[in-house]
């Protein structure tokens, strides 16, 4: 490819960047909080905006029974297919669902407000920004490079926060998409080739309710839960001695993110439940991790007379293991990101987990790259005042357009 082509692609993105920003603002203004996960309205709005650009999106609604069983309200996945001729298909996947805003915002989480070169809003950085970067990279490719072979597909899904089973997994199982290569929404300057796995479990501790005036007549489920939690936190400290060989990933860890139980202050709690999140490094076996955690919880509960526990798996997301076929993606993205950003862009792992693993488990090489900041922390992802630096959005769009031109050449 000639440098003049890359220059022309960059120039097209620059000329249409205001339009790209307006597109992202419209996406941010339609809430996709998950839970509750009523995300079909956002898909409808996105499809309308894409149609106005001449990009027809196939709508793939997930059956209600599956959606409700997953604890969500509505999911419609979108696929845009652009075929230029024989050759490989490159799929670009971003997810529109996001955790609820929470507290502490100084900007409207659904406003798409721009201040000091940054666009604020829930999902502005993870990952509605890559609805924009991927869409406008494809438009730049068509307008400037005019490829004569290969295909590009945009895939916009809505259940990444719940594990991707109703998005990529469902679409792959039903043969809706079957690309040769894929890129998923990014959250840093780096090209991500590996990531942690994640096991989420709900633990319910059962005791016996009693009046607080005669606590000896009951069995305190909260006291037992505290004992179990102390054992889990002690194990979490031990995890720090287990180091991954993957650059960018350190060690396993565990987080308890939600606790609920009891009925009133004057009642001995008869039931307490908590949800835990166990991040697994690529070298760990998920089956062994789950078996070990269940045994640890059961042993701790056995030390509390009168207590029983129920343990339910909520989510199992396997680690992303790089496939040898991802090299064309890595090389194209690293090369052009270095050219556009003016600094070396490493390929490494991340402690997060994403839907990319589902494609790799299906034998489809994939990497993570998009309009992320230098670090996830910088973007305020999953925190108040989430934002995307518009220069990062512009440059990531240029990188993706250039890389697509190479991959389809």
Question: How would you characterize this protein structure?
Answer:
The chain is an alpha/beta fold and 409 residues long. The protein is built from twelve helices and 17 strands. The chain has a six-stranded mixed beta sheet. Strands 11-13-9-14 form a four-stranded antiparallel beta sheet, with helices on one face. Strand 4 and strand 5 form a beta hairpin. Helix 2 runs antiparallel to helix 5 (128-145), helix 5 (128-145) packs across helix 12 (390-408) and helix 7 crosses helix 8 (286-302). The mean pLDDT is 96.
Keywords:
6-stranded mixed β-sheet; alpha/beta; 4-stranded antiparallel β-sheet; 17 strands
As a percent range, the share of strand residues is 15-25%
Q: How many helix segments?
A: 12
Strand line-up in the sheet with most strands: 1-2-6-3-7-16
Order of helices and strands: HHHEHEEEEHEHEEEEHEEEHEHEHEHEH
Radius of gyration: 23 Å
Number of strands: 17
Structural class: alpha/beta
Task: Measure the end-to-end span.
Answer: 8 Å
Net shape: elongated
Share of residues in helices: 25-40%
**How would you state the average pLDDT, rounded?**
96
Largest sheet, strands/sense/barrel: 6 strands, mixed
* Low-pLDDT segments: none
């Amino acid at each position: 490819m000639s440098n003049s082509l890359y220059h022309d692609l960059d120039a097209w993105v620059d000329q249409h960047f205001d339009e790209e920003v307006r597109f992202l603002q419209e996406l941010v203004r339609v809430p996709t909080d998950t839970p509750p996960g009523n995300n079909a309205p956002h898909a409808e709005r996105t499809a309308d905006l894409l149609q106005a650009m001449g990009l027809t999106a196939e709508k793939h609604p997930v059956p209600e029974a599956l959606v409700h069983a997953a604890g969500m309200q509505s999911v419609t996945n979108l696929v845009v297919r652009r075929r230029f001729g024989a050759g490989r298909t490159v799929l670009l996947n971003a997810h529109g669902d996001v955790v609820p805003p929470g507290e502490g915002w100084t900007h409207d989480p659904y406003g798409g407000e721009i201040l000091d070169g940054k666009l604020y809003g829930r999902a502005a950085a993870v990952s509605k920004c890559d609805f924009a970067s991927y869409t406008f990279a494809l438009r730049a490719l068509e307008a400037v490079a005019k490829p004569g072979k290969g295909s590009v597909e945009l895939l916009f899904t809505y259940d990444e926060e719940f594990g991707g089973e109703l998005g990529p997994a469902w679409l792959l199982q039903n043969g809706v998409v079957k690309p040769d290569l894929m890129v998923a929404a990014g959250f840093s300057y780096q090209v991500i080739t590996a990531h942690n796995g994640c096991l989420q479990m709900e633990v319910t501790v059962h005791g016996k309710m009693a009046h607080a005036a005669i606590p000896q007549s009951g069995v305190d489920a909260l006291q037992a839960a505290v004992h179990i939690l102390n054992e889990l936190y002690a194990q979490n400290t031990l995890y720090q001695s287990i180091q991954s060989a993957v650059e960018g990933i350190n060690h396993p860890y565990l987080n308890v993110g939600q606790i609920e139980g009891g009925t009133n202050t004057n009642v001995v709690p008869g039931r307490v439940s908590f949800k835990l999140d166990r991040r697994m490094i690529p070298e760990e076996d998920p089956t062994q991790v789950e078996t070990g955690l269940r045994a640890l919880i059961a042993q701790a509960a056995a030390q509390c007379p009168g207590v029983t526990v129920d343990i339910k798996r909520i989510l199992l997301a396997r680690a992303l293991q790089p496939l040898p076929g991802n090299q064309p993606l890595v090389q194209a993205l690293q090369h052009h990101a270095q050219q556009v950003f003016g600094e070396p862009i490493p390929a490494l792992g991340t402690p997060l987990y994403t839907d990319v693993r589902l494609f790799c488990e299906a034998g489809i090489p994939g990497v993570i790259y998009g309009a992320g900041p230098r670090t996830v922390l910088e973007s305020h992802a999953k925190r108040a005042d989430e934002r995307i630096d518009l220069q990062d959005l512009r440059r990531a769009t240029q990188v993706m357009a250039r890389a697509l031109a190479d991959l389809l050449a």
